[in-house]
Amino acid sequence: MMFQDRADAAARLADALSTYHGSHPMVLAIPRGAVPMGRIVADRLGGELDVVLVRKLGAPWHAELAVGAVDESGWIYVTPFAEAVGASPAYIEEERNGQLALLRQRRALYTPRRSAYPLGGRTVIVLDDGLATGATMIAALHAARQQQPARLICAVPVAAPDSLALVRGHADEVVCLYAPASFRAVGEHYQAFAQVDDSEVVACLAGDAAAGHPKPARPLRRQRGGTA
């Protein structure tokens, strides 16, 4: 399965999540790439959008390989293979502290005039643009679970099968559109996979910033042919 871009993937996810339309779900997007997707899904389902701030802990010799992840509280998830790739406990702690500092900066930038929305008793959908190791999603689900939502859903367009299996134990429901046995990287399943910058994240969140109410749901016009 190939997605045109994140908007196409978000539209397909919204269709798969349509059972939650009208339940005023909270969509928590993992920055930065998933936030524009979260805006689409939240609008389509008549919900609210917020960010769940987590950061992967990169491997010592390959920063893009996640050996774990940390949430805003400082809680960390460490992958089973972390030590095998040279991520010692001391290294993990150093990486954790660095990523926590970045999370504090992002919170101040993304939601400067409010705290994160409360999740207790709500349907919460945690969304990312794909799962590679699953580390950041596990940290995001853990952070959301601490607030005792009524139902916690993980939603992704594409995932590595092994990572999907790991994530299932942390959510009440997992919605994944495609989990190919030959998975290598999230970006390989998008025709266009442009970087998302901080200004786009802030703009996507602006619709819910004033009073905690969602923007009116609107239909999404699917693109036909070509790439964005």
Automatic annotation (TrEMBL):
Protein name: Phosphoribosyltransferase family protein
Lineage: Bacteria, Pseudomonadati, Pseudomonadota, Betaproteobacteria, Burkholderiales
GO molecular function ontology, one term from the record: glycosyltransferase activity
A Pfam family the protein falls into: Pribosyltran
Keywords: Glycosyltransferase, Transferase
Residue intervals of the Phosphoribosyltransferase domain: 8-182
SUPFAM superfamilies the record matches: PRTase-like (SSF53271)
Species name: Cupriavidus basilensis
Signal peptide: none
